Every structure is written in C-alpha cells, then in structure tokens.
C-alpha cells in the first residue's frame, strides 16, 4: 500500500474505499484491509474490508471495487491482496481449544485443576493449515496429478513448461520488465528488491525430483508446481472521469469479468477453460482478438490440461454444453514474462499481479486486449478482459 502511494502520488484522502483479498487469515488481523490501510497511513475515515476466494481473492477484491464504482458508491478504490506463507497460523487441537475455553470460564481452583488433569498428550498435537479441499479432503497437488493423467500430460511436458516459465521470467527480470516489485526490508534479513524464486534449471536436474503428491507414479513435482511465498499487491482503480479530473493517465480499462464454478473433485483446476469463452462472449471478442494472455500457473500440468480442454470440441460439447471449442491461446502470447511457477504464488496477491502484468505487456507490445484467467480452490475460476488505455 505504501508502494502504491509512492508510485502513484495519489492523495490518501482521495481514496474512497479499500478492498483486500487474503486466504489464510490471521485472527488478530481478520480484516487485514483495514489494519494495513491504517498502517500505511491512509485516512482513518476510509472504510476497508477483506474478501476471500482462494487463489482469486485479489481478483474478487478488484471486481468488488469495480462494482462499487459502477454503482456510483465510489470514485477511487484501492484493491489488492496479501499472504504471509512463512508465518501461517497454527492452532491447538480441537480438544485442547475446548479445554482452554472451558478453563477460562472455571471459577474455582478445584474446577481449574480438574480440567487440567484431563489434558492428555494427544491434546498437544497441532492443527496445521493444509492446501486441501474441505469438501473432498484432497490436496490440490493430488488434483493436479489426476488432471494431468486424465488429459494425458507427461512428466516431460510438465517439466518443459515449468522450465519455460522460469526461463521467460529470468529474461523479463534481466530486461527490467518486472518493474512493479517494491523493495521490502525483511526484519532480521536483507532487503528484497526483486522476485527471488526465479531459478532456471535444466530438464536433467528437474527430472531427478521425485513425485510430490501421488507416489511413486505421479508426475507433479516441486519443480513443476508453483511455490508458496510471501507477497502483497495493490492496484489503484478509478472511474475514467475521476482519473482524468485528477490528472492521471490510466494504464488500462478493466473491461469485463466473469466468475465460474464447477465440480471441486474432478474439475478443481479448470476455471480458465470455463471462464475464457464466457468472458469473451460478454466482451464481444474472440480468442483471436486477444493480444496477451496471463493465466495463473498453479501447476504446469494444470496449465497444459486447461490448454488441451480449451482446444477440445469433445470437452466443450460433453462438459460445457457448447457446440465447439474456444481454442487454445498461442504460446507466443501466453505468460511471456513468466508466471506463478517462477514468480511464486502468494494466494491472495496473485490476481493483481496478473492484471498489471497484462496491462504492461499490452503497452510494451502494442496490443489492445489482454485476457487474465485463474483457477481457485473449491472448483472456482475467474476470467477478465483488460484493455489498454489509448496512448
């Protein structure tokens, strides 16, 4: 948020509302949007709320802001997302929590000692947050492995795609294209000035890694999966009239968006396949009209499965109720500055990164339309059309 204030010089009191997305909430800052806004120096008169929608939480934050502006409630909204994967909340077991709450209500020493005497060693086993579906108890990695198998995507194909992501991210970083990283001083450590998860390797090195989820025959490994990382993002959204009145030249329009949901067991990660044709139709565009594609890379297998599904008439007819396929995005327009596999995936923050990268790629490459898409836990997905503002 401070980085946004510095980059844009937007007056703090001009911001009407702040919306933030996050996934693994900290109890002490359950409305992290408000706490962060106060910490960043925004006016205490500026309302703020927090949304959660798994990996598309900051997408939801942005579109919530768009809706508030469209409804005439606000002119200026700051949206973003945050995740602190290096310090996730770890809870006591349910038995211990219940005992501690009861202990807090005990009035006499005898009652307290009686409760304490009932505590057993297994009460101290912690509950760790898991990247797993509540409805199926299956981890996302298992789902990715099954999806890759269902679409016949080999380990080699997944490793090749992951290597592509890291290689393109390194190239973009070296060329100074990833300009939106705000330096951050990590307490007790060095200042982070650029994405530090970009590690181009080799097919040989990647091939040595063992399956991470379905052992021993799975194809999803640590190398072809997005890695968990700390991260935060912020984006400034205004009505066009307000932006021009304040003397700003907008980067892009957030033109249209859709959210989709499907079966969280077998189609958990296919959000882009379902969202892409819907958002194109909503915007009156075709796949050929899109100049840049920015898709969230949860797993290399997930990306490749979506590309295959999008390019399949059979899938469109049997699963989507459509007469024909939407088609697969051409790779020369697809995530050409890297993606979540190489840049990392701080759950709540990724959506804004996708959108602003799409806008910057459009400006750099002289394109007009970008398509952002992402899958999310719960079998949900998001797609958005970004249009470059006339230069």
Automatic annotation (TrEMBL):
Domain Thiolase C-terminal positions: 248-387
Pfam name, any one: Thiolase_N
GO molecular function: acetyl-CoA C-acyltransferase activity; acetyl-CoA C-myristoyltransferase activity
Subcellular location: Endoplasmic reticulum; Mitochondrion inner membrane; Mitochondrion outer membrane
Residues annotated as domain Thiolase N-terminal: 2-241
GO cellular component: endoplasmic reticulum; mitochondrial fatty acid beta-oxidation multienzyme complex; mitochondrial inner membrane; mitochondrial outer membrane
Source superkingdom: Eukaryota
Catalysed transformations (reactions): octanoyl-CoA + acetyl-CoA = 3-oxodecanoyl-CoA + CoA; tetradecanoyl-CoA + acetyl-CoA = 3-oxohexadecanoyl-CoA + CoA; decanoyl-CoA + acetyl-CoA = 3-oxododecanoyl-CoA + CoA; an acyl-CoA + acetyl-CoA = a 3-oxoacyl-CoA + CoA
One BP term from GO: fatty acid beta-oxidation
Matching CDD domains: thiolase (cd00751)
Main location: endoplasmic reticulum
Class of this enzyme: transferase
UniProt pathway annotation: Lipid metabolism; fatty acid beta-oxidation
Keywords on record: Acetylation, Acyltransferase, Endoplasmic reticulum, Fatty acid metabolism, Lipid metabolism, Membrane, Mitochondrion, Mitochondrion inner membrane, Mitochondrion outer membrane, Transferase, Transit peptide
EC numbers for this chain: 2.3.1.155, 2.3.1.16
Active site annotation, chain numbering: 55 (acyl-thioester intermediate), 345 (proton acceptor), 375 (proton acceptor)
Job description of the protein: Mitochondrial trifunctional enzyme catalyzes the last three of the four reactions of the mitochondrial beta-oxidation pathway. The mitochondrial beta-oxidation pathway is the major energy-producing process in tissues and is performed through four consecutive reactions breaking down fatty acids into acetyl-CoA. Among the enzymes involved in this pathway, the trifunctional enzyme exhibits specificity for long-chain fatty acids.
PANTHER family linked: ACETYL-COA C-ACYLTRANSFERASE, TRIFUNCTIONAL ENZYME SUBUNIT BETA, MITOCHONDRIAL
Record's subunit section: Heterotetramer of 2 alpha/HADHA and 2 beta/HADHB subunits; forms the mitochondrial trifunctional enzyme. Also purified as higher order heterooligomers including a 4 alpha/HADHA and 4 beta/HADHB heterooligomer which physiological significance remains unclear. The mitochondrial trifunctional enzyme interacts with MTLN. Interacts with RSAD2/viperin.
Family stated for the protein in its record: Belongs to the thiolase-like superfamily. Thiolase family.
Name of this chain's protein: Trifunctional enzyme subunit beta, mitochondrial
Classification lineage: Eukaryota, Metazoa, Chordata, Craniata, Vertebrata
Gene: Hadhb
